[in-house]
Amino acid sequence: MEFIVYEQKGAYAVITISREKALNALNSAVLEELDKTIDAVDLQTVRCLIVTGAGAKSFVAGADIGEMSTLSKAEGEAFGKKGNDVFRKLETLPIPVIAAVNGFALGGGCELSMSCDIRICSDNAVFGQPEVGLGITPGFGGTQRLARLVGPGMAKQMIYTARNIKADEAYRIGLVNGVYPQEELLPAAEKMAAGIAKNAPIAVRNCKRAINNGLDVDMDEALIIEEKLFGNCFETEDQKYGMAFFLDKNKEKVKEPFKNC
Ligand code: DAK
After folding, report:
1. What is the pLDDT, as a whole number, of residue 220?
2. Active-site residue (options: 7, 77, 91, 111)
3. pTM to 2 decimal places
4. Which atom of ligand 1 approaches the CA of 71 most closely?
5. CATH code 1.10.12.10 region(s) in the chain
6. In angstroms, what is the span from residue 255 Cα to ligand 1's centroid?
7. What's the CATH number for 199-247?
8. Whether residue 111 lies in the annotated active site
9. What does the pLDDT read at residue 89?
């Protein structure tokens, strides 16, 4: 891999997009490598994933404008599909994904962060969808995911004006869950990932599915999705162990790690 660093740290793993000289902009090669890296995540042992960018300046400064500038209509569609497919793969990955946004998250970078379950950022982070200033629309799901995350009014304002927002504003509108000094960002993401990884993995996965799938349908259908995934937990060893541990009044007993089965 030239542009992706993948590191598994116990029960969680970190994907670092590493094309620092172009502020980690996404060209076809980066997207291809990201795709292969996601496919290779060992879902038996990795219970949470972190996505971040290399360096202290940028998460991802968007799709590669140089590469895009010469695309034909057909090539543009193929490029858009590649990005959409990779981002959707991340969004529907069974395990939770945390975006640790360590600087610029513009265009495709903002869209990449929005395909993750949770976003936290450094205090120098900048978010924006600058596409209309380049003569295009957001093409990696920005019109859809931003409106779902921050509401249509705020999403429309950000997209129509192409105005970038800083970390504090991203926090205020609910685009990110927390803001940290740069050097504390990755440790905070890792602490969160380790905390998630400690919980019953099948239950966590079912929560992700219930929330994601439920948001696409009406409340009656959504509650049925939840019921089925709730019921599914009762076929797991982890549910039996988790509840038995709670009911066991022996305070000396130490909780064992969940077995993922
Ligand atoms: N693409 C390519 N190179 C980029 C880049 C980008 N998005 N962003 C930065 N770079 C490169 C710069 O060209 C520069 O390269 P050198 O000149 O050193 O070779 C290097 O990174 C450092 O950048 P700057 O010198 O500009 O650094 P500054 O600190 O002065 O400025 C900046 C940082 C982030 C404010 C600035 O670089 C900037 O405005 N970058 C562009 C941000 C942007 O507009 N991003 C959105 C791209 S549009 C589609 C699907 C998706 C998309 C499109 C179509 N289809 C469905 C077909 C997505 C579109 C986008 O993401």
Report:
1. 98
2. 111
3. 0.97
4. 57
5. 199-247
6. 48
7. 1.10.12.10
8. yes
9. 98
